[in-house]
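Chapter review: from sequence to fold.
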Amino acid sequence: MKHLNKKDLSVEEQVLWNLVGELWDCSMNRDFQTIKKYIHQNYRGWDSNMLLPHDRKYVIQSIADPAIHLLEYKLDPIGISVYDHLVGIVNYRYSAQISDQMKNIRAIKGRCTEVYLHRNSKWMLIGVHGGSDPLKVISAAEIY
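The C-alpha cell string follows.
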C-alpha cells in the first residue's frame, strides 16, 4: 500500500486523521484529560512488543508516565477507511523523539493501526495495534 495523499481524503477521513494528530499533540503536551475523553471505556490495544493486549487503564498510565516525554513526532498516513460512518481504521507510520528521566533523547519509529467508533458525533478510540520497529545495529564497534 502506498502513502496517502492527504488531499485525496474525504471530509470524514480527514476529520479522523486530524484526530490522530490531535491525540499525538495531547500526548506531547501532556494533556491527559483530553486523551481520556477519546479512549473508549472498553478500549483494547496490543503493542507488537508486548506479550499480551492491554486495556484503557494501561494505555492512559503509559501515556502519562512521567519517565517518558514525547518531544516531537511525524506521522505518515498509509491508509484510512471509514465504514458506514460508524467505524474508522487508520494505518500510519510514525517517527518520534522521546526523552527519559535522565534526559536521554531517543529516536523511535514504527507503525500503528488505530480503530475508532463514531458515537454521539464523536470518534472514540476502541483499539490499537502496532509499535516501534526493532532497533537495528549497523555497527556497534564505535560504542566500545
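Two observations follow directly from the output. The longest helix spans residues 11-28. The chain has one domain: 6-130.
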